[in-house]
Automatic annotation (TrEMBL):
A Pfam family per the record: MDMPI_N
Organism: Streptomyces chromofuscus
Keywords of the record: Transcription, Transcription regulation
Protein's UniProt keywords contain Electron transport: no
GO molecular function terms attached to this record: metal ion binding
Alphabetized InterPro entries for the sequence: Anti_sigma_zinc_sf (IPR041916), DinB/YfiT-like (IPR034660), MDMPI_metal-binding (IPR024344), Znf_put (IPR027383)
Region named Disordered: 1-24
Gene3D superfamilies with a match to the protein in the record: Anti-sigma factor, zinc-finger domain, dinb family like domain
Ranges for domain Mycothiol-dependent maleylpyruvate isomerase metal-binding: 113-260
Protein name, as recorded: Zf-HC2 domain-containing protein
Length: 394
């Protein structure tokens, strides 16, 4: 049967305002010009209706609308727009696989080159507020935690001053200039630079720090791998250049994490290969640091002369097992820095995550709070963990 008309129901007729508004009648050029806005969902409701009605009758505009919608989908990335921190390494490795460098960077200098580049990328877009964000430098002074307040710019000034020890060893300009440091130690140089520079330091410190880093990498590359045995004085000790470069890479990463924490930004650990080099350097320094703590009365007594292990001979040993990225196993001699570790004389076993061990060595984790798997001589384990924390400095 025919559908009943609304007039036959006795109900009032709808008013003119309640009737649906027909889409505006727009010419083809105007509708075509609206396709981009339609793809971005930026048209008004009336324009959207007009465009969609037109797409049902115009094949060329429908094809163009489909291409525009696909392009918009590519623009709306679901992932973060921040670059992958490993992108630089992958690109360089790919390039170097095709064309070896004419003057390669020594293998022991690549961690420093990578960590300074990563920190510089973090600083790239910092405004004045970020440069003056408060940062607390933390370390372990041998008996307990210590700290010093500064700013992001102050941290970069600290890195510039201490990296200057390597610059001096290579014959480059000293960032302190004619400034006299209280002592040629990292702390003394930092305090001297802070006193002589703008206080607090400003973002202008970034340029000389980065220029010095480039100069160091360039110089060690031109001098070749043989320069790695050159001595670098730290005032209260010295390291060969190849170890000093690893030490500076380690501190650059640690302080980059301090800066990232201050501005609430994520920061990844170094690559596994570089992390392994940093752990290896810390482990090699542990026997000497343990002996210094014994002389200061901060560790268990050394063996009596009758039981002293001759140089080059095996003695009591702690096995350090590092898990995760950059991991491995090291045998640490306990009786003397001149002794060698021996699996047959193992008295203790400690297992730690690689990043956790590095934070312990940086003084950012207390020896008593280090999450470690421990087995064996508790006194030897405590001595080694405290010696690891004592490697740290401002």
């Amino acid at each position: 049967m025919p559908r009943a008309s609304v007039e036959d129901t006795g109900l009032p007729l709808p008013t003119l305002d309640a009737l649906p508004t027909p889409p505006p009648s727009l010419p083809h050029p105007v509708l075509k010009s609206l396709l981009g806005a339609w793809a971005l969902a930026a048209c008004s409701p009336e324009e959207t209706t007009a465009v969609e009605d037109h797409l049902g009758t115009c094949g060329s505009c429908a094809e163009e609308a489909r291409r525009l919608r696909e392009a918009v989908g590519l623009l709306q990335r679901p992932d973060s727009l921040d670059l992958d921190p490993g992108l630089r390494t992958r690109v360089l490795d790919s390039c170097l696989d095709r064309r070896p460098p004419r003057i390669p960077v020594p293998e022991w200098a690549t961690p420093y080159d990578a960590e300074t580049a990563r920190l510089d990328a973090l600083l790239q877009d910092f405004g004045d507020a970020e440069w003056h964000a408060p940062v607390r430098l933390r370390w372990f002074d041998g008996t307990g935690p210590a700290s010093r307040r500064t700013t992001v710019a102050g941290v970069i000034a600290h890195l510039l001053a201490v990296d200057g020890l390597i610059a001096l060893a290579l014959g480059l300009d000293d960032p302190l200039g004619d400034t006299d440091a209280d002592a040629p130690t990292p702390t003394g140089r930092t305090e001297a630079y802070w006193r002589a520079s703008h206080f607090p330091p400003t973002r202008t410190v970034r340029a000389p720090w980065r220029e010095q880093g480039h100069g160091i990498v360039r110089t060690v590359s031109f001098t070749g791998g043989g320069a790695g045995k050159l001595g670098v004085s730290y005032g209260d000790g010295a390291l060969p250049l190849h170890d000093a470069m690893i030490d500076r890479a380690f501190e650059c990463w640690v302080h980059a994490e301090d800066i990232a924490e201050a501005v609430d930004y994520p920061y990844d650990p170094p690559s596994g290969r570089h992390l392994n080099r940093m752990i290896d350097l810390a482990v090699r320094l542990l026997p000497g640091t343990l002996a210094q703590r014994r002389r200061a009365g901060l560790a268990s007594p050394a063996p009596t002369p009758r039981h002293l292990v001759p140089a080059g001979k095996p003695g009591r040993t702690l096995r350090l097992e590092i898990e995760g990225s950059g991991g491995g196993e090291w045998l640490i001699p306990l009786d003397s820095p001149a002794a060698v570790g021996s699996a047959d004389l193992e008295v203790a076993h400690v297992a730690l995550d690689g990043v956790e061990f590095c934070r312990l060595a940086a003084g950012h984790v207390s020896p008593d709070d280090a999450a470690a798997g421990q087995l064996g001589d508790r006194e030897a384990i405590r001595d080694v963990l405290y010696a690891a924390a004592s490697l740290s400095r401002m």
